[in-house]
Specification:
With 426 residues, chain A is α/β, with parallel strands linked by helices. Helices cover 32% and strands 17% of the residues of chain A. Chain A has 2 domains: 30-261, Peroxisomal Thiolase, Chain A, domain 1, CATH 3.40.47; 270-423, 3-Layer(aba) Sandwich (Peroxisomal Thiolase, Chain A, domain 1), CATH 3.40.47. Chain B is α/β, with parallel strands linked by helices and 309 residues long. Chain B folds into 2 domains: 3-198, Peroxisomal Thiolase, Chain A, domain 1 (3-Layer(aba) Sandwich); 210-306, Peroxisomal Thiolase, Chain A, domain 1 (3-Layer(aba) Sandwich), CATH 3.40.47. Chain B has helices at residues 46-50, 54-70, 87-99, 108-111, 117-126, 141-155, 171-179, 221-234, 260-263, 269-282; strands at 3-11, 77-81, 131-135, 160-167, 191-198, 207-216, 244-247, 256-257, 288-295, 299-306. In chain B, strands 3-2-4-5-1-6-10-9-7-8 form a 10-stranded mixed β-sheet, sandwiched between helices. Classes of the chains: A alpha/beta (426), B alpha/beta (309). Chains A and B meet through strand 1, helix 4, helix 5, strand 4 and helix 6 of A and helix 3, helix 5, strand 3, helix 6 and helix 7 of B.
Chain lengths: 426, 309
Amino acid sequence: MRITSATTASLISTPGAAPMPAGRAANAPVAIAGTGVISAIGRNVTECLGSFEKGAAGMDTITYLGTVHRGQLPVAEVKADNETLARWAGVETSVSRTALLSLIAAREALERAAIPHRVRWRTGFISANTVGGMDRTENFYASFLDNPRYGRLRDVVLHECGSVTEWVADRLGITHFHSTISTACSSSANAISFGARMIRNGLLDIVVAGGTDALTRFTLNGFNSLMILDSRFCKPFDNDRLGLNLGEGAGYVVLVSDAVAATLSSPPGCVLSGFANANDAYHQTASSPDGRGSWLAMKGALQRAGLEPADISYINLHGTGTQNNDLAEGTAIRRLFDPVYPAMSSTKSFTGHTLGASGGIEAVFSVLAVLNGLIYPNLRFETPMTELPFTPTTEFLKGQPLRNVLSNSFGFGGNCTSLIFSKQSR
Amino acid sequence: MNIYIRSAACIAPTTNIGAADLPPLAKPAGNRLACIEPNYEELIDAKTLRRMSRIIRMGVAAAKSCLVEAGLPMPDAIVTGTGYGCVEDTVVFLRNMITRKEEALQPATFIQSTHNTVGAQIALILQCTGYNNTFVHRGFSFENAVLDAILLLREGEATTVLAGGLDELTDANYAILSRFGLYRHALAGEGAAFFLFANEPGPGDFAKLEGMTTFYRPETPEDARREMQGFLKDMAVDPGSIDLVIGEEIFPEIPTQPYKTQCGEYPTSTAYALWLASRLIKAGVHRRILVYNDYLGVHHAAFLLAAAS
């Protein structure tokens, strides 16, 4: 019996359905019970943390993606071919890499959450991605263009973004609620905030939320045509930055209601305390010079968390390494935080820009920062940006008293989202 | 709390936006339906229009006419749902990439290939810096967008939300989806419909959104029926009070009007059905309508609409 339902009957038009009380209930923190991640710096949480400590970046020459740009552009690939990923995931090899990465990270998140009797609860899977199963579609199209009857259909069966989410949800045994969000590079951050809202509104008890994206020729060539790829390893927030390196991976957090949190063997040490979504409304691909959308997202997240800028201990920057993003994001940070700046760094200096997955992967890193008192280094930083009065952290720091961590995700289409993760007050 | 549909606008194979009467049956070419597109220049600046693909034009035009109808220049939030996304631009970039062997590519179509392009373009044109989100979950894309709108209104994050569902049918998608057998018993379709949802009643409201539900892969028609009965029970609604079901037959005792003969099959077709239901209620033809969709046997969704006052 797979039939399950998400209904708004409790929310509108029925007796007792009322708007949420303003303030605390509408902005109640949502506990995080688990995290899972796969990226160029490791196939799970432990491996990724190890790479941070060693300062080992995930960029390299292109190894797994078949493209003419091999040898010219560095990328941050997950260090495994599809056969290996399929073996790790315990599934067939003909599946899109996007789905394989997603399943591996989402499963780790659920395992680490170790929720007793999970089937008793209403569980949702909210996963973001930007290109779905494009990694196989682009192979299909080479044949299909010759003749519309050519090309193996099994290569496009997971083409749609939502198909990837559904395929993974089926393997995780999650049927109550599925959703896929695609707002370019802020996709996963929006998936996480939507998940938190589903819990706050009483529609779900558990949500596995985050996102996934595999490297594809489509995205590599797209970003290359925009001329924002650095042919060296990227240098986020450096005055001499020349662009981004693309990466791939998946990252998920397990959000739980207070009722579920109460059943866990140890209380979750971290909560999602605030988030906000805003639009830059400036240009389809470029950020406004003053980072209007970024500023609105960060400010909104602080407001909803009931925090002041000075309460933030660390910012996990969007920090792509492009001229445009880092200046816009930095300008918005200056406007909001000046004159006292928290520690900050871009973990894209390790993982590359994982696009639709970045908000999920960086949410996982932010949660781990809160739980373990960590600040990650911003690799390859040398020269401060002339426009900004602050510089990113360049060392791996342990034992930091972090109370609140801000994670930024800003994307094409002006879609800007900021999340705040906070230490759970006991 | 109540949620009102202050206005609705649609571009579909049967009708032009702004048309006052109810749509006639569509005239398919083979088993394909194509939208009757309006004169976009009345709605979109000519310079901007030139750069837009068909789906962006349809989406922006439907969104703008929805706001004109509501008499509201700026919503608090914009939420879109699309199953296929901006397929035309995606395929153009893909084709160029393959035929030019990854060399000398122009970024224009790549830039407009992302699924959030329509929502982003609406924000850009309106200069709307508020909440902006895009759902891309197959037959639940539009449903997720409406759910988001409901939550935003309930949370007090917004008092008005512009939400829409849209998909375009391209030659490539038609060829591929035909090979999957999608159109063996259905017309291929497309469309763009936008709604202004509000937390307070307004003078010209189309309808009141009483509730919605989604459920995944029921094993038998009886399971689907039981799920729908449960939905109405949760809503405290007597099936006898429903004048019409728009969509697939689910309650044999209630008159049922299929809608895919008018718009065809596509992931966000419920946006068309909701537009049709809203208009029938506004015109006073019916007091309460249930929209029910079974998309490929996988995604089942229902919306319950009633007269606003």
